[in-house]
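Lab notebook: predicted structure, single chain.

Context: the supervisor wants predicted structures on file for every construct in the current expression panel, including those that have not yet been purified. This is the next one on the list. No modifications to the sequence; it matches the entry in the shared construct table.
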Amino acid sequence: MRTKVGVWVDYRKAIIVAISDKGEKMSLIINRPSSGKLNIYYDAVMACIRDEESILIFGPVEANAEFKKHLETNNLGERIVGMVTVDNMTESQIEAKVRQHLLK
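Prediction complete. Output recorded below exactly as produced.
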């Protein structure tokens, strides 16, 4: 089984939950707002999920849409299996959301 990932993304941080037959792994990427470069931040997140089979994106609507467009621009749009708009979530809620959507 290839890895499936859920990415909770906003302008400050991205939390990536990867699920594979070996278990689950959570990663955190922090955006440094002083840089003012969202593309660099989105590139860093994308680099962590580039080889994954399925990608679920969730978080605030603006960041979701921008990150989805970034993935599509980099030929990863066909791997997006869904987008869910949510505002604030705890890490436990993020893990549960990823399991709910990707382990159906």
